[in-house]
Design brief:
The protein is mainly alpha-helical. Helices cover 73% and strands 0% of the residues. The protein has 13 helices and no strands. The radius of gyration is 25 Å and the shape is flat.
Length: 282
């Protein structure tokens, strides 16, 4: 019996060791692009295409980051991206949470059919509505303005669907206790739904912030001047017809990536909780 238990322990530990090694290898593959981006950002331009390629620069040229910040109005690009991303995130959390609560709790005629029609918009590619949406922005004289970038992204069928599914899992007895005390739907929404949906709101907020921060196509259409460029547009200024400053592009990408890491670090607890809750319900 002792030998049998020992063999089982050895098999179990060996299996765990193999799984751990596989996960470490996969993690290295995932981390390597970020490492290569950081290393490339501190190389001289002459080192970028040398053969064989070097994983480590001969000298760390941190002045590349100064060039990124001074050769173009990169600070202005940063401010534009922060304004657009924050406004879009707050706007979508507001509109999606209100719409989701209406579809989850309010009983009105044609609610389910209207919700299915609303979800059907997810199947329409953005390229289909891009030209009509651009025409509306032109008629409103919103070209090269913040509202031209922000307003079309303030609504999301996906966010409404995500929060509606979460709201439907909240027990109705909690709302009934508020209604007994004389509270209406808005009181239930602000006192019951929002405090209980921090995980879902944080999850949606991370997705929306990530999308709006990296959005390239729509700002490319509605922005005409360099001072109104967002970061994805500003990074393209380091590329011309004849040459591409890959070290500066990688440095700009490293700088642009920092807010995403900060947002995730602050909201990762709610983000993981939201994913876990969704997995359990699924």
């Amino acid at each position: 019996m002792g030998a049998l238990r020992l063999s089982r322990k050895i098999k179990r530990y060996s299996r765990k060791t193999i799984i751990t090694l596989i996960l470490i290898i996969i993690s290295l593959f995932c981390v390597f692009p970020f490492f290569w981006m950081l290393v490339t950002s501190v190389k001289m331009k002459s080192e970028l295409f040398q053969y064989p390629p070097s994983l480590w620069p001969s000298k760390w040229h941190w002045e590349n980051y100064i060039k990124v910040w001074t050769s173009v109005p990169f600070g202005r690009f940063y401010i534009n991206s922060v304004i657009c991303a924050v406004c879009i995130t707050i706007g979508q959390l507001t509109t999606c949470s209100l719409g989701a609560y209406a579809f989850a709790r309010l009983n009105f005629r044609g609610r389910d059919r209207l919700f299915l029609l609303y979800l059907a918009t997810l199947m329409i590619p953005f390229q289909v509505i891009m030209i009509p949406l651009y025409s509306i922005i032109v008629k409103l004289n919103w070209i090269d303005t913040y509202q031209g970038i922000i307003v079309p992204s303030l609504f999301s069928a996906y966010g409404t669907f995500l929060l509606r599914q979460f709201f439907m899992g909240v027990p109705k007895e909690l709302e009934e206790s508020v209604k007994i005390d004389g509270g209406g739907y808005l009181v239930c929404f602000f006192r019951i739904m929002l405090p209980l949906s921090k995980a879902a709101l944080a999850t949606l907020g991370i997705f929306v912030f990530l999308f709006s921060w990296n959005n390239f196509l729509w700002p490319l259409l509605v922005v005409n001047t360099i001072p109104m460029h967002t970061l994805p547009l500003g990074i393209t200024l380091f590329q011309s017809r004849s040459t591409t400053d890959w070290n500066l592009i990688m440095g700009a990408s490293c700088i642009a990536m920092m807010p995403l890491l900060i947002v995730f670090l602050f909201a990762q607890q709610y983000f993981i909780e939201g994913i876990t809750v969704g997995a359990v319900k699924g």
